[in-house]
Amino acid sequence: MFSLGNKTFAPSIINSGGVLVAAMCRGIAGMEWGYIEVITRRSADGGKSWSEEKVVASPPARAINSDINNTKSAFFLNPVMASAPNGDLVMLLTFFPESKGTADAKYLEKKKTAFTYFDGKRCPIIYDRDGGYYIILNDGAVIDKSKAKTAFTVKGIGELYKEDEYLGNIYLNGAKGKSETKKTTTFGSMLKTPKRSYIFMLKSTDNGLTWSEPRDITPSVFSENDGALFMTCSGTGITTDEGRIIIPLYCEKGSVCVYSDDNGDTFNRNPRMPYPGGKGQWTAVQTPDGIIHAFDEGKPVISDDNGILWAKGGNAPGIKSKAQKSAARLGERLFLATKASRSGGGALAVADFIYDKKGEYKDIKWRKELTEITDGAFGKSSLCTVDETTLALVFEGENSVEFNLISIE
To answer: What is the pLDDT confidence band of residue 279, given thresholds at 50, 70 and 90?
Structure first.
């Protein structure tokens, strides 16, 4: 095993054109709040050696330090990647304004309206201290509640300007603090976004070497019933045989499925079934018959229409843990990494693809025994294929993301 970085967590790994790309969160305080960036590392030799860490998403912050009680920063969580049909890499992230996020959700503004419609498009809302509201348009321009154009614009990740004057960040609370690092701190603006989670997206066109700036896509995938906690799942999305990118999310209502049919340029949400029926964080894999199997904290669900409608999918024997899972398909088998329910370590469940005498695919059959991955700490994980006989696994260890190669006979 090989550690991919101290104080890293929530990993995602993918094979992009023969290059392994691992993305993960890195926190200064080692908690799931405070200053948390998203970093990537790449391996062009199947995981034998890795590049240096590269920061691809940095949150705005008023103070950056290792104090676990410091909440003076926005933060990113749960990077999840997928490969687009055209070869691009797509990454979705959860983003929280200055807060403790899920660790102290009572401070999130569940009843404050975060979006409204203007010119047929859903747009974010920001508020002044008196409760007056403004609307951010797609190009960053800001209009007031009477739909009149203002001198405000929003750039980057929440940077508010009045013409050329910088007024602070809409995701932060108050005055500027200090940084223990070389990272730049800023301050809260006069207009602020509601405290809730948001979904950001970034893309790479060169197998994870460089990435675009993160941009907020919450308006295109959010439902008014989702609540203030609307988050990406740790792990990896899938690209179906039909070329659809499916990214797993979840909210207070349950599992959420968002998808893209244009290489990740835009994402959509199915209004007919906004919650596929699962619970919490989930992962998916497609079998040779085109059926998508999704695994979460409960029983599996399946979709036979490219991720639009979902139904119960039976049991997966031996997989009793309610922890987050990660899935991959290699050869004629399906693999599922999960926390072992007895030892507390990590285990790999295996299902064989069953074919009839004519060679037509029939079903999957789960093996009774689980294969131990580690008897040590095993948290959130992500699986991908390296070659025809090897899987790559990243998972949360004791205090870092661990990388492991698994040979399949």
So the answer is: confident
